[in-house]
Amino acid sequence: MPRNISVPWAALILLALVGTTSPSSEHVNHLLMRQRPAGPANSLPEVLESQNYLSKYASLLELLAPIDSAFEKETDFDIDNENQIVPLLQYHILKETILTDDLQVVEPHFPPTMLLNETWTNITGGQRVTLMRQDEDEVFLVSGLDSRSMIDYQNRDIHFFEGVIQPIDTLLVPPMPLAETIRGRIPSMSAFLGALYKTGLADEVMDAKDVTIFAPDSQAFQKTYGALSELSNVELRNVLAYHIVPNRVLYSSDLQHQGQFLTRATLDDKTEPINITITAAGNHRYIGSSAVLDPDIMIANGVVHIITDVLNPLIPDAQPDPARKIQSPVFGPRGNATTGKTVPTPYLSDLPCITDCAATEMTAGPARTLHTPHPPTMRAAAVKCTGLPGVKAVVGIGMLAGIL
After folding, report:
1. Contact 132/101 with Cβ under 8 angstroms?
2. Do β-strands 284-287 and 290-299 pair in parallel, antiparallel, or remain unpaired?
């Protein structure tokens, strides 16, 4: 027997779906009031069927429903905050149904959600979430700020009507803009972010729709500090532009085979963009000759893949040697002879302060390891000029509590 979802959670899901049809606020509030507990609880199918313009969703829904314990730390749940509730709920509703038994081990899927609100996302077709089977009885999701949520495997694939509920242990976090993502969860990308600000590319990249960013980590910038420090601002801007693929959101599943994609960079004074080359070798993926270190970091307007080395647009035909752990440099020795971990992380001074900021030096951190997505953990977050609200302040609600 399918499990019913009783009000007020059916009403909240209804509210999320109503949000995709752009009704008036008065109509949304009217629907909420009609569905609040005052009599016998309605099931979700009954709620959907009662609204004829929502009937198309009945066969499309997959709900990612946080279990009760996910809300114990959430204290500011506000059912009346429509601007907050609607997009967060929409991010917990997939546009397609994927059963856990259909997932292959370590083969990520990136289903679109119903989060289409341009205040929250700038991706064609809806913001995505990563869904992956880690092993026989572990399936997890990765959302914004690299937040991970495990599916309750013992209670997976709960069917209702023609949809499916997947109980999850942690709220999904709608992906944040690039700057907030780096500052909040990925401090190893701070040099890249600082360089974007230095060259005036940061706002352009974060305002663009559908972008893929191959971002060198800070160790990569330390390794090439001598050469990069000799570049003009225009030259550095073009180097960074070579790491950005516009108008395409390329997840790791799109990097499985050899291919080329146009970047924002140009060669010399020409206007034609330069291609980057994708190479697949065993389980590893290379962008030019740089290995993908950490794939599929969701951001509001696309996806980021962290890579091991800074790419050089003047050497677009650079190829990797998969047999080598360290690839041949694409930047020759120039400028400051001191490079590597002894060099202070460059471009941190170009990061804008957003609160009272004490200058702190970031260290290179532990040795890097290539890997595929992994089970739920959270990266350490300690980065200069951090004044961002935490995940709790961003998400800070108790969605769908008691849904099961």
Report:
1. no
2. antiparallel
From CA 160, how far away is CA 158, in angstroms rounded? Answer: 7
DSSP state letters, 143-155 = -GGG-EEEB-GGG
Select from 342, 265, 345 the least CA-distant residue to 311.
265
CATH 3.40.50.720 fits 187-378, yes or no: no
- Residue 130 belongs to what H/E stretch? strand 130-135
Q: Where are the domains of the chain?
A: 9-175, 187-378
Query: From the CB of residue 267, how many other CB atoms can be counted at a distance below 10 Å?
Result: 14
Q: CA 321, 315, 218 angle in degrees (round to 5)?
A: 75
Dihedral pair phi/psi, residue 262, rounded to 5° = -70, 140
pLDDT in tens, 275-291: 999 999 988 999 999 99
Q: Which residues contact residue 270 at a Cβ distance below 8 angstroms, ignoring those fewer than 6 apart?
A: none
Q: Indicate the Cα dihedral angle 9, 11, 13, 19, nearest 10°.
A: -150
Spatial separation of the C-alpha atoms in residues 267 and 253, rounded to whole Å: 29
Q: What is the pTM of this model?
A: 0.79
- pLDDT tens for each residue of 210-228: 999 999 999 999 999 899 9
Task: Give the CATH fold of the 9-175 domain.
Answer: FAS1 domain (2.30.180)
249: DSSP letter? -
